[in-house]
Amino acid sequence: MKKATRLLLVAALMLVGMAISHASFAVNTGTMLNVGKAVADQTGLTQTATQTASQTATQAVTQKVTQKAGQLLNLNTASASQLTQLPGIGSKTAGAIIDKRTQLGGKFDSVDQLLGVKGIGAKKLEAIRPFLTL
What is the predicted pLDDT for the residue at 63? Predict the structure, then answer.
């Protein structure tokens, strides 16, 4: 009986020790997560990081478009290569713009006539309009 009692006592102590260890780990982990979240919230780190990434991406796109377009592009004299420097205009669309210009007698009367070019819709036209002139 003494041996069986000792074994039960040891087993019980082991279980209690494991339960305390597990509870301590769970509390510490939970506390660490809460502290980390509180620090991030107080410093605005999460929001700041998101805003910074968004601003950086916007600035990069703006800079790229500015570098590519550089100055206003004359729609009536631009080559296909020059047209591909516009945002969202690839070689196929540039060729279609040149074809449309030829159909119009070599001259666009309005930037809005680009809506008649396959691959250019209202959104794309508004994106490239600031870089075009006649």
Answer: 52
